[in-house]
Amino acid sequence: MANYDETSIKILEGLEAVRKRPGMYIGSTDKRGLHHLVWEIVDNAIDEAINGYGDYIKITLNKDESITVTDNGRGVPIGMHESGKSTPEVIYTILHAGGKFEEAGYKVSGGLHGVGASVVNALSSFMDVVIYRDGKISNIRFEDGGKVAIPLKQVGESKKTGTTVTFKPDYEIFKNCHFSYTTICERMQESAFLISGLTIEVIDEEDDKKEVYSYKNGLNNFVEYINEGKNPLSNIVSFSGVKNGIEVDVAMQYTDTYNENILSFVNNVKTPDGGTHEVGFKTGITKAFNDYIKNNNILKGNTVFDGSDVREGLSAIISLKVPEASLQFEGQTKSKLGTPEARSITESITYEQIKFFLEENRETALNIINKATKSMEAREAARKAREQVRNGKGKEKKDKILSGKLAKATGKDLSKNELFLVEGDSAGGSAKTGRNRETQAILPLRGKVLNTEKASNNDIHANEELNTLIYAIGAGVGNEFDPKDSNYGKVIIMTDADDDGAHIQILLLTFFYRFMRPLIEAGMLYIANPPLYALDFGKYKEYVATDEELEERKKTVKGAYKVQRFKGLGEMNPEELYETTMDPKSRSLIKVNITDAALAEKRVSVLMGDKVEPRKDWIEENVDFTLEDSFRKE
Ligand code: 0R9
User: Fold this and answer.
1) Boundaries of domain holding 461
2) Ligand 1: does its nearest atom lie under 6 Å from the Cβ of 227?
3) Catalytic residues
4) For the segment 563-618, what is each residue's pLDDT rounded down to a tens digit?
5) Ligand 1 center from residue 136 Cα (angstroms)
6) Where are the alpha helices (DSSP H) in 231-334?
7) How far is CA 291 from CA 237, 297, 345, 356, in A?
8) Number of helices (H) and strands (E), helices first, in the chain?
9) Per-residue pLDDT tens over the stretch 165-195
10) Does 584 fall in a domain?
11) 207 with 232, same domain?
């Protein structure tokens, strides 16, 4: 290196620190961390576009497992920095560089980690940057975790402007360096929804696939996308406003479903835990509806809707642009907006616009109000039922429902107790005999569970199987559900490893997703993972989970053995079932988690809802559907 001085050493030490503890910078070195590298580079390109420069981004997954991101913005500045190094060298090698070069504006790179391009460079075996700017094509190349291999030099001339970054994650850092085309497409589609007019192209060179995302009316298109497969109750309503530099954009639509689905974003970054903007939006809607029914004498004089009543069946996207100076988040993860003005601004814009909408669209207004009234009545009925239980009157009913079905755990530390939901009475019997009685409770499920995506609230409340489940968990249901009141620290779905078992799993997951989502968010819902095979050596047995594992094991195993394939849990004797599937020391559980709320919502409604066409399309497009993205091993 030309000037290998004290600052160069500091830089290498900085990048070395990133390599030593990558988790501190990108969260983890698994699939999620690997993709974080992509978001980091793409966010720079998106920043450039939302500041008004460039309208096109291309991401190419190359055959050698490197990835190329291109934008048509102004190009990274190529002049000399005061340190004596070129500007690109500075921004790709110095941690947290960048800020002072840029003018004030909205940034996406303040996202979850927002660590900058130098961190990506530090974790790459090479990074190659090509800049089109000032009539020149310039190139700089780094290797081995950010060491300059070729300093910035001119390699050609061009009238174009833009930046192209290619990097290859370092095998020494990442267990798996394979980028997921699907993951990248999903995220890019979301960005394209949020930034109308931006075109994002994703290309997979390996599998010869390509997607182009480009939306003229992004938020409306986003709502259409989420509501595909649902029956609309209103048109899409969209509105926006600006105050004190805070820009609010909303698109929303009512459907005849029973759930609310609100997604919020700040500077194009998702805020999964909501925050002041969501609170303002919700308050604005509730006020607008309550004022409307009062001023127009629509319901009995003193009727007041709860927020949840007027949000039943509502899908909404809330997107705010907040200048960096007013940006505040709660907690470490930037997942919840804290900016106080965002609340009042969003509330007043929402209130005014919804009020106007209701006045202009009386028929739609009455349909929504009718639905909200039913929700209010159901809520009231549920409250009365709870009160009865509390006063002892309903306890009899509850005990009657549970008796003969639930085998309770005797342990007093509820957080250590586990509830197994078991398919069928025969497996339920084995599980009851084989379990650890202190900590494990068994609830056998008879027959198919109700598909709660298609059922009405009344049907759900009247369903015996689901009531049993709700009473057994004992923490309420729907808006009232609180995982802190759960009788169990873990709820474990245990079904046969066949199609019927998978169907029951999906029906239960749909129920938990719709009616006990906080249980999933608290990491308390699991799926048991029973073995498919046993190798019987006469004196002892060995269990194998999958076909692949069986083939592997057959290669190394010595001696005589018989292969036994379990068709169902009921075929295992109680000891076997306990040892392979229930014993915390030897079992493997799959923890259910929601990695992407919008996607989970869409999948549940498309796959479980009552429209057939979207489901057929989806199945045809996704023949190799696995639940890999939604579940993680414990
Ligand atoms: C392919 C991924 N794209 C990028 O990484 C990218 C960064 C970037 C950029 C600017 C323009 N386009 C970009 N693409 C830019 C230019 C100017 C000011 N700010 C940003 C300018 O012309 O004045 N930069 C991101 C950081 C920097 N540039 C900077 F720190 F070097 F200025």
Assistant:
1) 411-530+576-594
2) no
3) 423, 496, 498, 500
4) 988 888 888 899 999 999 999 998 989 888 887 666 777 777 777 777 777 777 76
5) 16
6) 276-295, 307-311
7) 19, 10, 19, 12
8) 21, 22
9) 999 999 999 988 999 998 999 999 999 999 9
10) yes
11) no
